[in-house]
From TrEMBL:
Keywords of the record: Isomerase, Metal-binding, Zinc
Pfam families in the record: KduI
EC number per UniProt: 5.3.1.17
Known role: Catalyzes the isomerization of 5-dehydro-4-deoxy-D-glucuronate to 3-deoxy-D-glycero-2,5-hexodiulosonate.
Originating species: Pedobacter yulinensis
Recorded metabolic or biological pathway in which this protein acts: Glycan metabolism; pectin degradation; 2-dehydro-3-deoxy-D-gluconate from pectin: step 4/5
Superkingdom to which the source organism belongs: Bacteria
Cofactor note: Binds 1 zinc ion per subunit.
Positions bound to Zn(2+): H198, H200, E205, H247
GO molecular function, one term: 4-deoxy-L-threo-5-hexosulose-uronate ketol-isomerase activity
Enzyme class: isomerase
Annotated protein name in UniProt: 4-deoxy-L-threo-5-hexosulose-uronate ketol-isomerase
Catalytic activity: 5-dehydro-4-deoxy-D-glucuronate = 3-deoxy-D-glycero-2,5-hexodiulosonate
Cofactors that this protein relies on: Zn(2+)
Length: 280
């Protein structure tokens, strides 16, 4: 089998309050996304969001059509966002070829029937991190380079959250139905992301942490602002953030993470901010 597909039920705040460490990890953490010559997919019932990882080494891998989607093909009623966190990749979408370098993004629109993924160099394989959300309108597929991203610099070294936000697949850069993706890079000496924290009842989110140095880790914070929980995470792991939950993290070193979200609107600034001193 070239792929795995797992479903995760949506969880209420009341349920999450009762979870111990192992239960939190089982419901929200995606511990292994990249397996050589395989594809891994996790469907969250929060906004029916799919998170996945593709690691083509010896051969090209074709986007499957999991029976759980009850579709003629994967993107019949979905759109797809991809960010490459490995070596150079080649992606072919309905005959159109895209070369994707490290930290470049690709949007593939609803209605695309055939998609294949391969690495330019098996010794330095591509690692394709993907997010997918339901879609109801076909938009053209589009590659987005680092230079084409909308870039925002926030925070400061004094508060250990000096970071650069690269908005790659957002509506100011590329047309999408509801999917948004971007990448936040923390400066040396900074460890906090998304602080002050926020929630957004109109959207769910997934965080993918990478460029975490060997021997280091991330403490990801989740839960209602007055009822927080934490999940310790390693390099190249992802975590589901429900719409009612904060999503913030602190590392034992600086790192990079990819955020992806979908829901009711495309307003990046639609957030319900939480004062740091109000967190519990």
């Amino acid at each position: 089998m070239k792929y795995t597909f797992e479903s995760r039920w949506a969880t209420s705040p009341a349920e999450a309050k009762q979870m111990d460490t192992s239960a939190l990890r089982a419901h929200f953490l995606m511990p292994q996304l990249f397996v050589p010559d395989q594809m891994s997919f996790t469907l969250s019932h929060f906004d029916r969001y799919i998170t996945g990882g593709i690691l083509p080494v010896a051969e090209a891998l074709n986007l499957p059509n999991p029976p759980e989607l009850r579709a003629e093909f994967f993107l019949q009623r979905r759109e797809l966002g991809i960010i490459n966190v490995g070596g150079p990749a080649q992606i072919i979408a309905d005959g159109e070829t895209f070369e994707l370098a490290f930290k470049e993004a690709l949007y593939i629109g609803q209605g695309t029937r055939e998609v294949s993924f391969s690495s330019a160099d098996p010794a330095n394989p591509a690692k394709l991190y993907l997010n997918s959300a339901p879609a109801h309108h076909p938009y053209p597929s589009k590659k987005v380079t680092r230079n084409e991203a909308e870039v925002v610099e926030l925070g400061s070294a004094a508060t250990a959250n000096h970071r650069v936000i690269n908005k790659l697949l957002v509506n100011s850069v590329v047309q999408t139905c509801q999917l948004q993706m971007g990448m936040t890079e923390l400066k040396t000496g900074s460890v906090w992301n998304t602080m002050p924290a926020h929630t957004h009842d109109r959207r769910m989110e997934v965080y993918f942490y990478f460029e975490v140095p060997d021997g280091q880790a991330i403490c990801h914070f989740m839960g209602e602002p007055q009822e927080t929980r934490h999940i310790w995470m390693q390099n190249e792991q992802a975590v589901i953030s429900p719409n009612w939950s904060i999503h913030s993290g602190s590392g034992t070193s600086n790192y990079t993470f990819i955020w992806g979200m979908a829901g009711e609107n495309l307003d990046y600034g639609d957030m319900d901010h939480c004062a740091i001193t109000d967190l519990r």
